[in-house]
Design brief:
With about 280 residues, the chain is α/β, with parallel strands linked by helices. The protein is about 45% helix and about 15% strand. The chain is built from 8 helices and 6 strands, in the order αβαβαβααβαββαα. A 6-stranded mixed sheet has the order 2-1-3-4-6-5, sandwiched between helices. The two termini are about 25 Å apart.
Length: about 280
């Protein structure tokens, strides 16, 4: 990490610590659920270090492809909402089946290769449909206490499927950011662009909208680097943490439903995105 990046990360960390001290009592009413994550995910680790309860919903303890696991989560969310406790779900379902390399395999691969891709996409679609059905039901009655953010690579073809369109209606706020702006690097140490898109119920997600500065080269994201790029950097985790603390502070001073229902004169919340859209 360059000295400048290290300084920026230290400044961000100091800011977050101040915010945490100010809202620590309210943070105890929040729980961060990380849906389909690794055992050592940095987002949950950040929350745990800063006094926010965090639950990793990933293998080996939680197989979210099973309906029973999804049902358990739904019950947790509803129980917490009934107790006026906030839950934030960060969701990043496996997306390899929809990446550009797999699209190329569908067009040019052998029959066996195409069959594998179609099977992987069917499994991914089942996972997505289960989640969308659950969160749609939960948000219908508990939108004041259940908050959602969903991240996928920006150019993933999965954004075009019907279930994702339905999810985008539920999570109307959008931000786009680049991994290189958060010090995402290849195994060889080169910056990787890794364009991300996050959709959310929270307008504050716009805080994450850092984009490539275009003053450096990017490593090609494939093989081991493609696998490793699925993991967020500490710098990104710190910014997500700051966003969470913003929400904790805001919700602590806002009555339920106050300021969170969209009125007709606000227009499409997608127009509120505070980031560039071009690549």
């Amino acid at each position: 990490m360059s000295p400048e990046c290290r300084r920026q990360l230290q400044d961000a960390t100091t800011t977050v610590r101040r915010e945490l001290d100010a809202v620590a009592p309210a943070a105890r009413d929040w729980c961060f659920f990380e849906y389909c994550c690794g055992e050592h995910s940095v987002l949950s680790a950040w929350c745990l270090r800063h006094g926010i309860e965090a639950v990793r919903l990933g293998l080996p303890d939680h197989n979210m492809s099973r309906q029973t696991e999804v049902d358990k989560l739904e019950m947790q969310l509803r129980t917490r909402a009934a107790a006026q406790q906030h839950s934030l779900l960060w969701v990043a379902l496996p997306c390899t089946a929809w990446c550009s390399w797999q699209s190329l395999n569908v067009k040019r691969g052998s029959d066996r290769t195409r069959a594998k891709v179609h099977a992987a996409r069917a499994a991914s679609l089942r996972l997505l449909i289960r989640f969308v059905k659950m969160i749609k039901s939960v948000l219908k009655d508990n939108a004041s206490y259940v908050h959602v953010a969903y991240e996928w690579p920006r150019h993933n073809s999965g954004w075009g499927i019907a279930a994702m369109h339905e999810l985008q209606q539920l999570l109307p706020y959008v931000v786009e950011c680049d991994g290189c702006a958060y010090s995402l690097r290849s195994y060889e140490g080169e910056l990787m662009k890794k364009p991300w898109r996050v959709i959310s119920t929270l307008p504050g997600i716009s805080r994450l909208g850092r984009r490539c500065s275009h003053d450096h080269r990017h490593s090609v994201c494939h093989g081991r680097d493609a696998t490793d790029s699925a993991y967020y950097t500490q710098e990104f985790a710190t910014e997500v943490g700051a966003m969470i603390m913003d929400q904790v502070e805001e919700m602590a001073t806002t009555r339920p439903n106050e300021g969170h229902e969209r009125s007709s004169d606000l227009g499409d919340p997608r127009q509120c995105v505070l980031c560039a859209v071009e690549d």
